[in-house]
Amino acid sequence: MNAWIIAIVTVIVAPFIGGFLAGIDRRITARLQGRFGPPILQPFYDFFKLLGKSKIAASRLQLMWIYAYLVLMITALLFLVLRLDILLMMFILGFAGVCFALGGFSSKSPYSHLGANRELMQMLAYEPVLLLLALGVYAQNGSFLISQIYASPTPLISRLWPIFIALLVILTIKLRKSPFDLATSHHAHQELIKGIMTEYSGPYYALIELTEWYEIVLLLGIVSLFVANPLWVGIVIALAAYLLELFVDNVTARMTVGWMVRFVWAVGITLCILNLIWFWVFAAIKGVS
Amino acid sequence: MGIIATSRLKSPWIMHFDNSSCNGCDIEVLACLTPLYDIERFGIVNMGNPKHTDVLVVTGPVNRRTARVLKNLYDQIADPKMVIAVGTCSISGGVFHNCYNVLGGVDKVIPVDVYIPGCAARPEAIIDGVVMALQKLAKLQGVAL
Question: B44, CA 20 to 30 Å: which among A40, A258, A273, B118?
Fold first, then answer.
């Protein structure tokens, strides 16, 4: 019964937190660019305006994928707040990303296809790191359960700090921030219009915004797991990571897809694997002595 | 319905379309997006995608080639939508009015809500025009701006 209450509260409250963070994002970005910026509530105005627009759909299949994207994202978030299996959560998050890419492929627009291709390349870059993160959690705690992370006296970051750095790189891709802002493009309309989101309009585009708000909360929740005990330190670290992403967004230029995959595989996966090897060597030494 | 009507006034996303303008007005439209004028204060974002647009900002006179494109873009915008004609050319054809390929103002092809005169229209005038468009929308919906 308690789990039900937590789940319902999460589903209702998470979009408000996500939308608020998105509003702060736009305001801080504007200030960094020497502008005044929109009101903090701007993402909510955009959301309700989009809900009120007339419905135009390029294909019915596209709508199915976008609903699946939303439902799977909420499911992944529920796995986090109900403290279930982190490995399964990563798989659900991965399938949510696949749904979004398939939604992009299910219309005939070339811009949508280009964005969907890039989304798949982004997944190729970040999925291995997320899986290795789950393995790192298992290496430290001997369990994939998130409740075990909260129960453990030593925080994850003390031994998994290389994976934490890799996660910060991944966060830039997942939040669609500047060096890796490739699939949807907040600022490069000349290049690919709106990328994978080109063919969604009105209420369906609002659904994507809603899913992105859930995603922000989920990703910052994963970051906060690294200092799960006490929780408020983890939340402060997650918010600091979000501010860092905004700063990175404004000081870097967009890179190509190939560069992104090379960079993330070279830096992110190397850090993760070194971290796991260190765990293995550490266990071997402890076994000998 | 109240919150949606209010939100419409607070987040007009624009798309800028250049018919066959001399680029004077286009530069002034883009100047509105710079830190000096910063129209994102009012929630205005330049989208570049007709499917996400609320306000179509058109510059330059319509010619026989762009009329078709303009009509197509207008049809792709989801309702409710508004059209702002920026500059003298987009109102009447301006200095190009009697060229062999020019049809005239934007209102020959699509309905226009607000006309912003000037050659080129100043950024202040363009912002004023967007505010007028919003006032018109507010009046239609019976909401205070």
Answer: B118
